[in-house]
Amino acid sequence: MQSADVIVIGAGVAGLSTAMQLALRGASVIVLERERIGNGSTGRAAGLLGQLRGNVEHTRMLIDGIEIVRQLEKTTGTEIFVQTGSLRVAETPERAAEIASLVAMGKSIGFDIEHLPASEVAKKLPYMRTDDLLDACYCPTDGHLQPAELVSGYLKVGKDCGVQYKTNSPVIEILHAGGRVQGVRTAEGEYHAPKVVNAGGPWSYLNAELANATLPTAAIGHYYLTTRPDPNHPVDRMSPAIRDRELRLYTRPESGGLIVGIYDAEPDQHNMRKLPVDFDMSRMKAARDSIQVARLLEATNARFPWIDERTPMTITTGIMTFTPDARPFCGEMPDLEGLYHCAGFSGHGIVQSPTIGLIMSQLILDGQSSYDCESIEADRYFELPGYMTRADIERRCFEMAGNYYTKIEKATPVATGHA
Ligand SMILES: Cc1cc2nc3c(=O)[nH]c(=O)nc-3n(C[C@H](O)[C@H](O)[C@H](O)COP(=O)(O)OP(=O)(O)OC[C@H]3O[C@@H](n4cnc5c(N)ncnc54)[C@H](O)[C@@H]3O)c2cc1C
């Protein structure tokens, strides 16, 4: 039997960042991972980092996260953040109005953002169709995080601060008595701690069930393609990322080719309980004849006419964790003291993880955070009718995932804020 101040279940970016921040403040931490480090959703991610959200506090979290990453880069001597800049494009009046509101909100908090006429977009992105665009905006400080390098950074700092990482150690029971957490059990034995963090990604709802709790997350499939370098359509390493919400697409450069991902209208749903105990997400293969791949190729071809089903490419698929409102669950539930959830990043866990780790460490060690966490509190659906059965939860998360890119954001400018 071993003990620590905090046990973290799951060594994806959420668990690793939380463990690192806790250890930086002197807490003793054990991370238990059912398989290999960073081999869940984290190992499949494209890593796109767009800082501007419709919500000012979420924007601030992402801006601050870059500072944490810059510090990690200094410590490890590795490039994690590739600051390519990013573009959002609009092909309808509604999307143009959305861009106008984002530009106004961004400027009101001192964020670097500009309108970009379609002619300028064409100059920046000669490999993209632009003749149908009504407007675009450009954020020069956006880019992408390299997930493997981010994992290495969290791991290095965590190890230096004494975090213990145990792989091939699935947690099979959460120990509790009298309304308080006491630790966890694995096949090898018990680990005792007064605080346990459920950072189990797509498995997070099953981990909650180990403590008889309900966590409204669901496991949703996601796809992107990566083209090989094409001399006729060169993609510079520092080419800006693109978001085309009307076509549900995002892109970024990758090794001379292009990653193009889709937030599909009807994504796959996964039942994590039915997957083998030794399920390895890196071995998931996308069926080339699936409807999701067909829709990805169709939408990609509409924006990049030189990419079609004959283009040399790989297709990556993996599992994300969605919530009913696409915001994560971070913190304790009212019915079990010491059990903290940190899951449900709805396609943004890589980029949210630097600040989320900091927030989790504050909640666990101080009982409160320097960030306004209302919108990500773990108990916001606690015992709410319509969110208690697995079928209801899955339906709501699935709807949110399917509508995620099509909803129009209404950003509100603020008089003062954080730059
Ligand atoms: C195809 C794809 C593309 C994506 N693109 C982006 C992107 O561009 N930008 C972005 O920010 N995000 C992206 N994401 C989302 C991102 O990958 C996730 O939000 C993020 O990795 C979540 O991290 P996590 O630590 O919560 O989960 P995970 O990385 O899944 O880690 C959870 C870990 O917990 C372990 N675990 C679970 N239960 C137990 C247990 N009982 N005992 C022990 N261990 C356990 C699992 O084995 C796993 O390693 C993408 C995801 C996919 C699938």
Short description:
The protein has 419 residues and is α/β, with parallel strands linked by helices. It is 29% helix and 24% strand.
Distance between the termini: 47 Å
Hetero compounds: flavin-adenine dinucleotide
Return the CATH class of the domain at 2-48 and 147-217 and 325-387: Alpha Beta
**Strand segment tally:** 22
What is CATH's topology name of the domain at 2-48 and 147-217 and 325-387?
FAD/NAD(P)-binding domain
Q: Whole-number radius of gyration? A: 21 Å
Do you know the CATH architecture of the domain at 2-48 and 147-217 and 325-387? 3-Layer(bba) Sandwich
Helix content: 25-40%
The whole-number mean of residue pLDDT values reads 95
Query: Hey, roughly how much beta strand do the residues contain?
Result: 15-25%
The CATH superfamily of the domain at 2-48 and 147-217 and 325-387 is known as: FAD/NAD(P)-binding domain
Number of helical runs?
9
How does the helix and strand content classify structurally? alpha/beta
Major sheet size, sense and barrel closure: 9 strands, mixed
Low-confidence stretches: none
